[in-house]
Amino acid sequence: MMSATPPYAWMNGEIIPWEACVLHGRTQGAFWGANVFEGIRAYWSPSAGQLYAFRLEDHLQRLRRSMKSVRLQVAYSDLALREACLQLLRVNAFRDDVHIVVVAFFGIGEHFDTMGLTEDTGVHITALPKPRSDAYRGGVPICVSSWRRISDDTMPPRIKSGANYLNNRLAHQEAVRNGYHTALILNQRGSIAEAPGSCVVMVRDGRLITPPATSGSLEGITLATVASLARHELGLVVEEREVDRTELYVAEEVFLCGTLAEILPVVSVDRVPVGDGLPGPLTARLQDLYDRAARAGTAAGRWITPVYDIEPAPDVAGDVAGTVLVRG
Ligand SMILES: Cc1ncc(COP(=O)(O)O)c(C=O)c1O
After folding, report:
1. Which atom of ligand 1 is nearest to the CA of 38?
2. Domain limits, the chain
3. N or C, which end of the chain is more exposed by having fewer CB within 10 Å?
């Protein structure tokens, strides 16, 4: 058992003790990974004394799309799940950056039929403090995996399902065993799909270029945030197109982006230094813009949900005014 766990979790409509958030081993969710999930961050702003859930509605909408794709129906609306996430953050009284995981799962089902469609379903939500990675400023070395990405005609990467993540796990663990931080996975056509837990972006001739979801990546919410910040705050061109492995060797900058990874500079690919082998200037600017947005600074309006029922501190009131999606 982990030592430092928060006191509470949420399951099927109730706040419960962390330890009680368990599924029977014969649920389809636990046995087959027959579930869909979302990882969501909430960011603590010391100056505002407030915790902000980041793009909560967007994550819950993607969860709903995953559910639709696997024909999973649960008894909770998006609004109910949104309130559940906020309630869980409040009862745990977090004052740190937090990672929330919402999982919708198939239960045991009729006659223990492990593959049958069942109305026995549920949802659990857990949240843990998640400080920023040490590699956030210094960057990480990555490699191209020997594993290929699952594809839409086998296990659709668009669906954020536990079962899909065996593919990601194989690639990630191979990379770590070989001394890299993580890997990039090629799709069946041999072009870049994504990293095991994040999308990838390269900078070439000052433009941001990223593989489209049809290359085998998740429809990334962090990627959408980065693209919006790059276009609207920095006036950059953002292009979605197939990306070859060797383009990364000659790119000016490369970074990973995802809810957990945030914006993570890549300093080498297959031991080939990216640029001069240090985090690039555009990556650093995007990190700062993203951080300000996540902690209720400029451009945050449509993306943040305050968790606690407090008035914002005067020094941030200007930024936050008119942007509050929910109070209390
Ligand atoms: C496989 C994969 N790709 C990309 C991402 C990044 O997606 P997002 O930015 O929506 O978290 C994630 C993280 O959830 C992921 O697991």
Report:
1. 14
2. 8-129, 135-294
3. N
